[in-house]
Amino acid sequence: MASKADQTLTFTYEGTDRRGQKVKGEVVSKSMALAKALLRKQGINAQKVYKKRNNPLAGLNKQKIGAMDIAIFTRQLATMMKAGVPLVQSFEIVADGLDNPSMKEVVLGIKSDVEGGNGLAVSLRKYPDLFDDLFCSLVNSGEQSGALETMLDRVAVYKEKSEALKMKIKKAMKYPITVVIVALIVTVILLLKVVPVFQDLFAGFGAELPAFTQMVINLSKWMQAWWFVFIGGIVGTVVGLKELKKRSTGFANWLDRVILKLPIVGDLAYKSTVARFCRTLATTFAAGVPLIDALVACAGAAGNVVYRDAIMKIRDDVATGQQLGFSMRQAGIFPSMALQMVAIGEESGALDAMLEKVATHFENEVDNAVDGLTSMMEPLIMAVLGVLVGGLIVAMYLPIFQLGSVV
To answer: What is the pTM (predicted TM-score) of this model?
Structure first.
């Protein structure tokens, strides 16, 4: 979190520009004096400058800044700088084109900080929740080498690829989860509203009901009496697992290991983790980050404890003088294609290019796996829905069919 001295404030101003025309607007700065200095630098003769009052309800409507907002900001800033637009002016253009007001506020805050004489990496580090250490380190490398626009372009590609990979994983999980939720809702509605109607009808038969029908009726009675327990149990389980994963490192690590062993999801997680590792290492190594430091960044971005521990072991081996390809082979969790490409890259001096090729390959593999998983899940989900809904319908009509055969 940023300290009080680093926090920016919004000031409203009224005055005249260089042509003598009246202007008014807002400026983001850390103090009143700095705000007036920024306005003078822009050629504005400010007659009134006052701190903008905060709306107590503003926080309730504040839009959340997501990872995709950061990726869009990085791409737009890189495009502006590659076009030769000065950094401060690039911030203004990017801010005007942003739809998220919260992100716009952050960009204007960074602009004011850069105008105050700070470097871009230093300004970004004041928003640690939005720009992680890897992001800031890459930007700092670009500033130190004098190739900030090139580095921003690499960072933009990295963020776009990373977010695209996450979206593919979410796409694979979202469809079956949504259908299962809908199936549960339909089943509960049938048990609460439809089955009781048939129950009243069967009460007048005076005959023993089939075991399957009686089981469904008993389930309906329980649901009518304890539906809140059923819903509370599901919600409590989901929330409890999320909190347990967040608070318990042991449980989170166990979950990471289990996911890798699952039949279909495990393969998807395996390929996405390898793609993320190669993409991160390619980006950091190409930026001039030492290999040992780059591996530390890769461990932090791995997203799975198995690979995080393995990458840190590889980092220790490389620090003692071993080659990266040999250390990766010793870990025993990387595919042979990645090992061969890394070995070729080390021998030819083009490690970053080879890692990018591996990352692109496994990103395409994840994309194909997601499409295949979606295609495979569709008939399976339809079968589950058919068993749930069809089973309830058959259970309700089974006594009627038996009555017809007796008559």
So the answer is: 0.66
